[in-house]
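name: query_chain
kind: protein
chains: 1
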Amino acid sequence: MTLHVDSNGANSSRRYCTGPSRTFETDALERREPALRRRLWAKKAREEHDAFAQALRDKGVKVHLFGDLFTDVLATVDGRAFVLDTLITDDEIGPRS
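structure:
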């Protein structure tokens, strides 16, 4: 398989990746499609994303995975407080009881 990536940004030795959503693995999404098919699609999407990230690494690019970065932030007291104070607000999820 040959991978090719075009970018609208300047050449960079660093890229940030999010990866496919785990939403596709749940039965709640578009019940028209069988759950097994969604799970297989999600698995394939993860495999392709991992191959893409590895291809970037093989070219010398430092790949930062958003999930890992967010986990690191939440592991710190200040990071967790920032997320809770700015993202989990009454306007977003309703008032606390």
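note: The chain has a mean pLDDT of 75.
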